[in-house]
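INTERNAL AUDIT FORM
Audit reference: QA-55
Scope: verify that the stored structure record matches its stored sequence.
Auditor: D.O.
Record contents follow.
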Amino acid sequence: MTAQTVRIGLVIAHSLAFYRRILHGVRNYATNRPEWLFTPIATDLKSLELVKPLHCDGYIAHIFHRPLGLALKSLRRPVINVSGVLPELPFPRVISDHAAVGRLAAEHLLSCGLKQLAFVGYRTHEFSTERERGLRTVAEQNGVRVQSFYERNRRLEDPTGVWRWNAPLLDWLRKLEKPVGILASHDTQGAQVAEYCHQLQFTVPDQVAIVGVDDDDVLCELSRPSLSSVMLPAERIGFEAARILDEWMNGRRSTDKTLVLPPAGVIVRQSSNLQSVPDSDVAAAVRFIHGHAHEPITVADLLQAVPIARRALERRFRKWLQRSLLDEIRRAHIERAKHLLLTTDLPMSEIANHAGLSDSRNLSITFRKVTGMTPTQFRRQIQTHTNDLKQ
């Protein structure tokens, strides 16, 4: 090692995709810091004690229990916290906008025609209470009731990697009035809710639509059916945490205690991919629209698939979903485009082609009309590839 070596302790687990994406973001920042030497450290006190002799110059940590926070504080080195559990700890933080997560999930579930929402989470963890608050805000604006279930285990252990048998949750699900849309505070809980619905023989999403948080590919695909999830800006969290740590180690500590980043969007999978409306023709129309969102469908194509007079279908569509057939077609195309913008590096011409829009110009016009921003602005805002972050 040279005198210029800067040792960075990474106190972050590798168990979930959210953690690994944070580490990707840290790595992306470090491409311009060849002097950085990473030291992975398990998120327990014994591991932290073992690496003390290495004298790390700074730490990026996911601190989910107070003893770990106190141990890191005692090292008297810069620490950037990327956890949404203990806001009172005296470290700068980089986190997701958890209330916005709840709002996105509520808007998605209500767009499915649901009239009842529910939440599964924790009473005391900040990320959970904020996600519930966002959900309730949108629900109240739409006159919709929310029921909540809170994890009863009070131990401050890792709140995103615990999946244990939960008889009270099973009983709560059994008694919920249906149909209902449920936001789980993270994907582990979402997959657990889906599995309990499978055991109780509730159909998902017809009776119970489920949305998790984190977009963990393994958990979401393991779920039966596959789990819709709000994607968090995890790579950008890691990148920004590394940037702030770098500035602090070079004597430029920010006065802002918390940097809050917006969620990337809802990745829709089978667990919430149906319209919960009692009108079978409206539900069939929505299924056709979203099943063909990758194609340049028109209202005429829809009316061939759902043989009913256009005026009658328009009237019933507005009654249940408060939007027109053309609005829903446009919305489906844009949701498809958002997914591709989030998960691929495809150029705009190919995004347009795979999202049922004729060309990049049509994509740009339609995207701006629906979202208020261009596809490029959307991608730069929420996707965290290195080149975007350096701009």
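Auditor finding: record pair retrieved intact. The chain is about 45% helix and 15% strand.
Action required: none
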